[in-house]
Amino acid sequence: MQDLTVIPATNAAGLPDAPLRLRHWIGGAWVDSADGATSLRASPAHGVAVSVAAKGSRAEACAAIAAARAAFDAGDWARSSGKDRATLLLRVADLIDRDRARIARQEVLESGKPITQAMAEIEGAADIWRYAAALARTMHGDSHNSLGPDMLGLVLKEPIGVVSLITPWNFPFLIISQKLPFALAAGCTAVVKPSELTPGTTVMLGQLLEEAGLPAGVCNIVLGYGDPVGAVLSSDARVDMVSFTGSTAVGKRITAAASATLKKVSLELGGKNPQVIFADADLDQAADAIAFGVYFNAGECCNSGSRIIVHQDVAAALVDKIVALSRRVPFGDPLDPRTQVGAIITPEHLAKIDGYVQAAVAAGARLALGGATLDVGGLGAQFYQPTIVTDVRPDMAIAREEVFGPVLSVLTFRTASEAIALANDAAYGLSAGVWSRDVSTCLDFVRRVRAGTVWTNTWMDGFAELPFGGFRESGQGRELGRYGLEEFLELKTVQMRIGATRGAWVG
Predict the structure, then answer these.
(1) Within the chain, what is the greatest distance between any pair of CA atoms?
(2) pTM strictly above 0.70
(3) Is residue 388 assigned to a domain?
(4) What are the tens digits of pLDDT across the range 52-73?
(5) What are the tens digits of pLDDT across the range 306-318?
(6) Lower Cβ count inside 10 Å, N or C end of the chain?
């Protein structure tokens, strides 16, 4: 195993005695699927059954849409005050804090991510709910009093209506918290479909919403697979908007399905995020941030810094530093608080990751570290070694496609223009980074790179106040910040004539 840091199974006491039973939440009631179908989820790290979820059909999806439609059309939530909506969102945030350990444990069991990371994500989610609550009280439209002495113009911001929120398996609780509180703050009603691989924490959130007093039908949860549940949520005419986070391929299918009714679509999709390291960069700082960017969540992250473009004069030195740090990153049992990198989500995805690596090596790339599955004592076989691939050419799949694993591709450059060209040489445009002590170099890169987020001399910092989303095939629309609220709003223009000053059209 090339002298890696591995944490074997050490916390069997944290495993459940029985899998968590999960049901749909539709119209304020917790229900099983009409046909009794269920889906079993086993822990990717420990192999034991951790949840049994109702497997939704078209019937459950349609029932949830009907409940959300009725709740919106009734108007009680849509027309409630910002203060009332904010009060409920703050109550939910407090409940998330109260149950943080329980929610984090379930996320670890279903996803394989480390417990310390899961705890931090749940804490961050609570903060987002509080931020959305603040937006609920400060949302407002515009007035125009310069249209003449007898005219007043108003621009109202109103909730778009019923929204479908479809979330992925890699950050199940955090990503629904980047969507749902903003939709609720805007006055929308929602139908949520979590990934069939990680449904547990979304159901837990539904329980907290119920406890907080959210009116029946304002939020509904349907468990199951993209076909049929996601397809119905994307195409049904009663849905006004779809917000989806996941792969670019699925995002394109959702857009096609939604086009029949011209509903709004917001997409947060894949990335092949470059970091450009200039010769004057602080290599120690860069190496640590690169290690974090590629190994965080086992690389199963749309923001993964999986592609570095480093000046040829410092490439060898930087790679040596990253290799040394990579050997020290603890991979292993996600229930052990020492672990920083856990298991891969499924055996199929593990094979896909390895396929990218082996294809690159066969095409002439070189392994500086890793390149194989990882044996973790006492656990299953769903782990992958920290992997660094050098001598990567821009035309290789590993340099252009989303690997979604703990795999770093290293490319080199000579000039700034070459570096920017390489950074932009991908179908994606989610995130990018630049490392240099020269502020002019950083600003030039910021202005020329095609990406929704650009970090300078850091990687993957995030704040609820700042928008997140991408260019090109990384998606459309934005989450977080006030822009995340505006995604769920429609504009209504009101023109008011004051007094009987309108001249006759018919003489």
Answers:
(1) 93
(2) yes
(3) yes
(4) 999 999 999 999 999 999 999 9
(5) 999 999 999 999 9
(6) C
